[in-house]
């Protein structure tokens, strides 16, 4: 059996490459005769630049920018041909905020650093800037980024990891605020600020993209980029093309993907959706190995997922899984491989 292993990163515990290696190691133990092809992926969030650099080559650059808490951070970005690929998480990622500071920082974190990266890419003379959105600590609606953007810009494209709007029950504050440390009162305050900000931007720009898919990505940074006229593409689709995933899948019998948490957000444009689509296009089964799974079988089947398995369940607990993320993921892969 020919198996393509194409996971995303696992929520701060494993990079996409490390997850692919762990799954491959376990699958080899469970099915020694299988022919494995690893294809680490990203959906616009953490790992976007690394995966594209590995796939495309190009010139990896480092720029000091304003981090989410206002302190300088070094952010990497990629230039390939005439395109710059930026990753918002490099500048304003949640991993840059210590866990014990997130409750305080969730209402003050700024997207300024992404604006500074865009300006650096513009000054490098590229024709197109692709901004990967996801994994941010921010919920400022892109206010910080817009504050530093000035002068003419090249073509902007936002590569979002989600299709959420800016406001409402599926918006940036309600959906992602709690993940960044916001309690219910803070979520309400953030939602109010985003509403006022959307009104201000719409009046200034004459364009109101608050309800457009992806406006809520990276804490509303997607909204700001859309207001600037940015085009939209799924981050997973950018990586799918760059890594040649479709070619690898065309030669496979089974596709295995994965991420930290396979939940309802996974069904709204996240990476597993793109991988499952690539498999479905060729009539192939797709299996998900995730840290945790909260998607039902019927929901998973609706996007082409044949099976979904949780590391935490196989290992016995979340704590056991987190104590050895690579080892427990490999053990799960070995177990699943024996069933195929």
Write structural notes for this entry:
With 340 residues, this protein is of the alpha/beta class. The chain folds into two domains: 2-41 and 244-339, Rossmann fold (3-Layer(aba) Sandwich); 48-236, Glycerate kinase, domain 2 (Alpha-Beta Complex). Helix content is 43%, strand content 20%. It is built from 16 helices and eleven strands. It has helices at residues 16-30, 48-56, 88-92, 102-105, 112-123, 143-148, 172-176, 184-205, 217-227, 235-242, 245-250, 271-280, 297-302, 311-315, 318-323, 325-339, and strands spanning 2-5, 35-38, 59-66, 72-80, 83-87, 128-133, 155-160, 231-234, 254-262, 286-293, 307-310. The strands form two sheets. The chain has a six-stranded mixed β-sheet, sandwiched between helices. The protein has a five-stranded parallel β-sheet with strand order 2-1-9-10-11. Helix 1 (16-30) crosses helix 16, helix 8 runs parallel beside helix 9 and helix 10 (235-242) packs across helix 12 (271-280). It starts with a strand and ends with a helix. The relative contact order is 0.16. The model has no long low-confidence stretch (mean pLDDT 94).
Radius of gyration: 20 Å
> What structural class is derived from the secondary structure elements?
alpha/beta
> SSE order in H/E notation?
EHEHEEEHHHEHEHHHEHHEHEHEHHH
The total strand number stands at: 11
Q: Looking at the structure, what is the overall shape? A: globular
Largest sheet: 6 strands, mixed
Please give the count of helices. Answer: 16
Overall pLDDT: 94
Cross-sheet strand order for the largest sheet: 3-4-5-6-7-8
Number of structurally distinct domains: 2
**Annotated CATH architecture of the largest domain:** Alpha-Beta Complex
Q: Span between N and C termini? A: 9 Å
Low-confidence stretches: none
State the CATH superfamily name of the largest domain.
Glycerate kinase, domain 2
Strand proportion:
15-25%
Q: For this structure, what is the CATH class of the largest domain?
A: Alpha Beta
């Amino acid at each position: 059996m020919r198996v393509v292993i194409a996971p995303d990163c696992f929520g701060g515990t494993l990079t996409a490459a490390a997850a692919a290696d762990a799954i491959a190691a376990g699958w080899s133990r469970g099915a020694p005769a299988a022919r494995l092809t690893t294809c680490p992926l990203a959906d616009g969030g953490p790992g976007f630049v690394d995966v594209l650099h590995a796939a495309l080559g190009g010139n990896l650059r480092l720029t000091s920018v304003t981090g989410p808490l206002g302190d300088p951070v070094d952010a990497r970005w990629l230039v390939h041909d005439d395109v710059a690929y930026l990753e918002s998480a490099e500048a304003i990622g949640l991993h840059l905020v210590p866990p014990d500071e997130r409750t305080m920082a969730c209402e003050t974190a700024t997207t300024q650093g992404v604006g500074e990266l865009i300006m650096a890419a513009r000054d490098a003379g590229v024709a197109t800037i692709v901004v990967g959105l996801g994994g941010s600590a921010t919920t400022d609606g892109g206010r910080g980024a817009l504050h530093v953007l000035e002068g003419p810009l090249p073509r902007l494209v936002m590569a979002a990891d989600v299709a959420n709007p800016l406001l409402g029950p599926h918006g940036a504050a309600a959906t992602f605020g709690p993940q960044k440390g916001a309690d219910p009162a803070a979520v309400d305050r953030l939602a109010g600020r985003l509403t006022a900000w959307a009104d201000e931007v719409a009046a200034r720009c004459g364009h109101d993209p608050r309800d457009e898919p992806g406006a809520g990505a990276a804490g509303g940074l997607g909204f700001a980029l859309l207001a600037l006229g940015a085009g939209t593409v799924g981050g997973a689709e950018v990586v799918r093309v760059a890594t040649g995933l479709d070619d690898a899948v065309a030669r496979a019998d089974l596709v295995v993907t994965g991420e930290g948490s396979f939940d309802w957000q996974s069904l709204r444009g996240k990476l597993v959706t793109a991988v499952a689509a690539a498999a479905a296009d060729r009539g192939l089964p797709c299996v998900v190995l995730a840290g945790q799974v909260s998607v039902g079988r019927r929901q998973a089947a609706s996007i082409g997922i044949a099976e979904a398995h949780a590391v935490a369940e196989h290992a016995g607990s979340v704590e056991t899984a987190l104590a050895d993320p690579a080892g427990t993921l490999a053990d799960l892969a070995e177990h699943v491989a024996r069933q195929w």
